[in-house]
Hints:
The structure is a homodimer of 472-residue chains.
Chain A: H1 13-23, E1 27-29, E2 36-38, H2 40-59, E3 63-64, E4 70-72, H3 73-76, H4 80-86, E5 91-96, E6 99-107, H5 112-122, E7 131-140, E8 154-164, H6 167-188, E9 194-197, E10 209-216, E11 221-232, H7 234-238, E12 243-244, E13 250-251, E14 254-261, H8 263-272, E15 289-293, H9 298-310, E16 316-318, H10 326-335, E17 340-344, H11 346-351, E18 353-358, E19 364-368, H12 372-397, E20 399-401, H13 405-413, E21 418-422, H14 427-437, E22 440-445, E23 453-454, E24 461-462, E25 465-471
Parallel strand pairs in A: 3-7, 11-25, 15-16, 15-17, 20-21
Antiparallel strand pairs in A: 1-2, 4-6, 5-6, 7-8, 8-14, 9-10, 9-22, 10-11, 11-14, 12-13, 17-18, 18-19, 21-25, 22-25, 23-24
Helix pairs in contact in A: 2-6
Amino acid sequence: MAKNQLHSFQNELSEWYNDVILKAELADYAPVKGCMVIRPYGYAIWEGIQNFMNTLIKEHGVQNAYFPLFIPMHFLNKEKEHVEGFAPELAIVTHGGGEKLPEELAVRPTSETIMYEMYSKWTKSWRDLPVLINQWCNVVRWEKRTYMFLRTSEFLWQEGHCAHLTHQESLDIVLWAMNLYQQTYNQLLGLYGIAGYKSNTEKFAGAGKSITFEMLMPNGKSLQSCTSHDLGQNFSKSFNWTVQDQNGQNVYPWQNSWGLSTRSIGGLIMAHGDDNGLKLPPNIAPIQVVIVPIPGHQDALELAKKIKDTLSLFRVELDLDDTQTAGFKFNKWELKGVPLRIEIGSRDVASNSVVIYRRDTGEKMTVAVAEVATNVQSLLANIQANLFENHKKFTQDHTLKIDNYDQFKQAMDTTRGFLSAHWCEDPECEAAIKTETKATTRCLPLDAKEESGTCVRCGKPSTHRWLFGLSY
Amino acid sequence: MAKNQLHSFQNELSEWYNDVILKAELADYAPVKGCMVIRPYGYAIWEGIQNFMNTLIKEHGVQNAYFPLFIPMHFLNKEKEHVEGFAPELAIVTHGGGEKLPEELAVRPTSETIMYEMYSKWTKSWRDLPVLINQWCNVVRWEKRTYMFLRTSEFLWQEGHCAHLTHQESLDIVLWAMNLYQQTYNQLLGLYGIAGYKSNTEKFAGAGKSITFEMLMPNGKSLQSCTSHDLGQNFSKSFNWTVQDQNGQNVYPWQNSWGLSTRSIGGLIMAHGDDNGLKLPPNIAPIQVVIVPIPGHQDALELAKKIKDTLSLFRVELDLDDTQTAGFKFNKWELKGVPLRIEIGSRDVASNSVVIYRRDTGEKMTVAVAEVATNVQSLLANIQANLFENHKKFTQDHTLKIDNYDQFKQAMDTTRGFLSAHWCEDPECEAAIKTETKATTRCLPLDAKEESGTCVRCGKPSTHRWLFGLSY
């Protein structure tokens, strides 16, 4: 146990993860099976993600809206693959207002069906396209076992659903959305990952193609961190939805859907941590700087307030609690992952300087009072870049080119990580690899180069290397 | 029918209301009974309300969080009045993940019970108080008949839930929250209303006292527009939740809850409209200024773009659609309630001026190009103030002092509005008034002066005038 009474980050990641979520007050188990409560410190992270993404979403002309929580079962049944994929995870409302309902309602697991029903009502001609809509909401997919943020029966997400006259326009949005997610992960959350196509087995129920963003976690498992789907015309055909094109012909619109959920917070927590707790990248940290005047040093208080005033551009907490020791406070704010801590004692007041502590590297430095604001600004930028580079290096160091099935199996037993290997794209071969090694196809990277080779397991010809790994 | 094919605002308000919501694309009926779809133009209004309120909520130290959608039935059953109030309106989940659930789950109608269960876990001593939490979410209260925004089975709202060591601190938040709502209605939505105490019959199920904000609609009906409840210690006692006070004694915390919902958008639509559609106050209007270059006037385009560049401080739409006539566009933007329209034709280009049209008064004025930005700024402020003053004057003009039951009955038959009358505060008398006149007690205004009188119906002594009216 480390000083914050956490399990070991290196050796007991699952236990560390639960510890840090509870102790840093990011979330708590709910008294409803499979559900969680997102506490203010965790919710502030979600609000940060919402703000960042909303700016980019709206700049691109996509508008937010809100569709009903309940979906009549006959809607879900319209797209065969879709209902087969989601039926086992549904929560079902059977009674409302004291009466048995004439038709059971599903609590939305995703909103394709109810949205497209409305879109078909709103669009008559090509002039009514594209429809560019996103919604922020809760969805429910029944889970037996809770893994906070990563797997809960109810979670929060955004789901973008656009409809277009041409397949190409729809594909442009599929890629734009994945780019939006990459920006969010890279620039806001300081996380690196690989965008690529899912295999046919792993794609979304009802999609033509699914693009995923896969992030490597410290235990070598891969986290599917968001997805963007090319739905082709599957749903417009199921809903018998046509519009008149420029030539007066009835055509089926092309659709896409794309989602990022509170699962992203799980990746954020896990990828950056250490034995002392969270390390939040400054761009997303609810508190970027905590100022701790040493308890009992009365002269430190005034300087602390003065320093806070010079930091109005940043999210700053001034810790004036006089019931805790300095050491207790330092541990608490490290646990909560605050990027910078400013310590002020009587000696600092005398020398007109403060001590700044960096959460990511553990460095301490003495800074003159007049230079605090400039230093904070450059340090925060530096920490943001450093955390991203660390995660990128970790991912690249744990991505192995494998050309031989024995090596593949050995790597899955030991180092794990991403295995880059040729694969024949046959679902039976994919299933056998999973049974034999636990590895699943993570994705065919968007930037994968054509390269002739042979399937790592069956030896059939292959044109590209896929990424394999253990799934979260 | 007026030019936008709406029913008459004066004479057919209900039909006008539905027309304008559908035609201005604020919302649509959902294919799920009792539910609605909030379309982007309507949802942008909700986002405006969220942004305005979040700033004030956070400034006061209240933090956003998220609690589960599902509430186990035994939680709701803990507070007797609470469950009796909500049981008839619940949606019930009986199955999850393909199996019958061991305990039925209610879809939250409000979150007191699940929140207080968690609060009791998080707080052990007076040092852990106050708990200051708010959440933005969807709730479900089953309705047979949909009235868009005003009464739907699912709606969006915020619910603040705070807990305190003393009753006084809790009461301070009850009043602060009502003040927050008044600011939102007055300053953002341009709406006037009366804050006051609900009668014991009309208060929230489980509350000690409820404060409401009542707004008068153009048909003389009163809209309960939000509420703030003093819950006393009812829920902490039901949940057996105590904390240690400064003296080491176990005490029950004092709670309050306060909520404002998408119903507020219904009031906004109805209170400001006219036969041509919506009139949105500039502070909440998703589009504050629309620029319409007259179709076919090629030279107007360049000037329109130039004008748009000078208005970067405002929310501006440049209407470049070349498939519609100028007249059609003018009607469309009036229907949507855009506060200012700037019209630009070849003649305007020649005189280096534009025409500005005010939606609230219908005035048109010619403004030199160099003065457009300054004019827009002052006109928007003027429209905001004017719409509020209009609604305030309407409300005051329709608030009648009544001291005689015959007059009371006559007023309810004819002018409606708020009736200010003495009442004995006896629930039986209240019920009789409702049966005999359809009027319900709306509230005892917070600023009501003590005044000795006799109950308008039964003649028993009374100390204050209450507001009566027809309920929405």
